[in-house]
Design a protein that fits this description.
By secondary structure, the protein is mostly helical. It has 2 domains: 52-129, DNA polymerase, domain 1 (Orthogonal Bundle), CATH 1.10.150; 150-315, Orthogonal Bundle (hpI Integrase, Chain A). It has helices at residues 6-12, 36-49, 53-69, 74-89, 97-105, 112-129, 150-158, 162-174, 178-182, 213-223, 236-254, 264-279, 282-289, 294-300; strands at 189-190, 195-198, 207-210, 302-304, 313-315. The strands form 2 sheets. It has a 3-stranded antiparallel β-sheet with strand order 1-2-3. A two-stranded antiparallel ribbon has the order 4-5. Helix 3 (53-69) packs antiparallel against helix 4, helix 5 packs antiparallel against helix 6 and helix 12 runs antiparallel to helix 13.
């Protein structure tokens, strides 16, 4: 047999614990002959109590794929994965519930809602691993959503690049979730009737929206420059970074810090508020947003008088 073939290599190399005929065992004498399983179990125990950054990163990647397999919404996967990465970066041992609990408590700049989101993320992470914990209790403080003026919305859209501007105009006209918009396919856009079919996420209802001629022209412009079946082919994470950079530049240029407060989800708040203001029909707004429970619509919707310079706003009570 030729030298350095796989069989020769496996039997002639030096190993640390088990011994095969013709090999030299470098393990201490008191370890020789011991079952490898016991050693592996000890190593696993050490990794659980003091995991390496690489091990925690691998576990978070596994968690992302698990959520995808379980059918979680893309936006949920992104947000929960981000939270887990932040917890690990800030010193939490994500394999130790008490360490995670302590790290969450130490985040003084986090709101109660943000901490509650972190608890939800870690609870589902433990579900993947078959673990349990006593989650800390954080009470969300309900706040009125930030509602920009339509002029501010339009300034932001005009200040962004073609693809980002198209995405924002779509969110403005439909109020769909960013995850729903991001999965949109060209086959779901009806160029004859100027409409779009929305495939729902988060257990909501499907909808159809009429689109303006302006938006149809914007969509046609980006379709001519792409071969992808999806309208927005870039990853949502990278698109979010592009949007945040363009938003910051525009806020600085216009000297209007309110523009920095506009997020993808702000467009949903804006659409719901405007439609409720026009129709005073909460059931219509509920169907438009795709909600199955009217309580969710009451959380999203506030009544705003846009005719005055000063807002007079009231939040609907559940």
């Amino acid at each position: 047999m030729a030298l350095n073939t796989p069989p020769d290599y496996l039997f002639d190399r030096q190993i640390c614990v088990t011994q095969t005929t013709g090999t030299k065992n470098l393990a201490p004498k008191n370890m020789q002959g011991k079952n490898m399983t016991a050693i592996e179990e000890a190593d696993i125990s050490r990794q659980c109590t003091d995991p390496t950054p690489a091990a925690m990163k691998a576990k978070i990647v596994e968690y992302s794929f698990w959520m995808l397999k379980e059918g979680y919404a893309e936006s949920t996967i992104l947000s929960r994965t981000k939270i887990m990465k932040i917890l690990a970066k800030r010193g939490a041992n994500i394999l130790d519930p008490e360490s995670v609990k302590e790290t969450i408590a130490q985040q003084k700049c986090w709101s109660e809602g943000r901490k509650s989101n972190a608890v939800d993320a870690y609870t589902s992470f433990l579900l993947m691993n078959g673990g349990k914990w006593e989650p800390p209790r954080y009470k969300r403080v309900q706040k009125l959503p930030f509602i920009p003026t339509e002029a501010e919305i339009d300034q932001l859209i005009a200040g962004c690049g073609p693809k980002t501007a198209t995405l924002l105009q779509l969110l403005k006209e439909t109020g769909m979730r960013i995850g729903e918009a991001w999965r949109l396919k060209w086959t779901e856009i009806d160029n004859v009737n100027n409409s779009v079919r929305v495939t729902p996420e988060k257990g909501s209802n499907p909808r159809i929206f009429k689109l303006s001629g302006k938006l149809m022209a914007m969509l046609d412009s980006i379709q001519r420059r792409t071969q992808n079946n999806r309208v927005f082919a870039k990853s949502l994470k990278s698109q979010r970074r592009v949007f945040e950079k363009q938003r910051a530049n525009l806020a600085r240029k216009l000297k209007n810090p309110r523009i920095r407060e506009i997020t993808f989800h702000t467009f949903r708040h804006f659409k719901a508020t405007m439609e409720y203001h026009k129709t005073k029909d909460i059931l219509y707004v509920m169907r438009m947003l795709g909600h199955k429970n009217i309580k969710n619509t009451l959380v999203y919707t506030q009544l705003v008088d846009f005719q005055d310079d000063d807002y007079v706003s009231r939040v609907a009570k559940t």
